[in-house]
User: What shape does this take?
Amino acid sequence: MARRPHMALDPANFTLSIAIFLLVGIEGSLGAEIVKGTADTTVWVASGVILALVVALGIALSESLQRWMRKSRRFQTIGVTKRVARARGLVVFISMKAGRSSARDAALYHAGEGVLQHLWLLTSVDAQADAEWVRGEVKGAWPSVEVHPTVCLSDIYSIVEAKEEVEKVRKQMARKGLAENDIMCNFTGMTKHMSAGMIFACAPKEARLQYMHPKKFLADGRADPDAGPSEPVEVEIAYQVEEDE
Assistant: This one.
């Protein structure tokens, strides 16, 4: 689809402006005759018609400029912070084997001070045992946390499925009375496709996103479990989207 020129370059804006200036000039000449007392009925009628046209075109130009100004405010900024406020609801992806620790660390962080109330675990069919390990770790440390039934994704390479499942969980949280700032989605774990799906699920909303940053890395790039629990880093995405017309 061909991209249209920017609103500021739209010829219609210049046409309206020129038409208004020309009509204002004519109205000025007619007004001068009226002030001097030399105007007849035709001049008075013409003056009234032109004045009405100026007002109508002025309103049209104003609306056009307002649309341009709204579209000119499009932006996208990304900020990160390590001062992560604990959330009452948490959604995490569970990786297999050593990678499962990031989900546990995320849950235990938000459970601190008794804040976390609801925990959703999303994982693959092959990593169900790892999800149960995370469940046991969290319930052992914080029995008051409600760990909901594990959600198993059929295709760990499907961005769409990840997005849809995260959206379903978010709706469940909303029904439990949790506000947007009460919910944290942790996109660490599983595949990059899963992470992308979670980010897309949260992008159109005032949702909160985070990832877990290890204190130390091993030679192969994985987190070093002996260095202590990973720490959450919240990602704040602010943007406006241009919609197709």
Observations:
- Residues 7-73 form one domain.
- The radius of gyration is 30 Å.
- Confidence is low (pLDDT under 50) at residues 1-9, 241-245.
- The chain is about 45% helix and 15% strand.
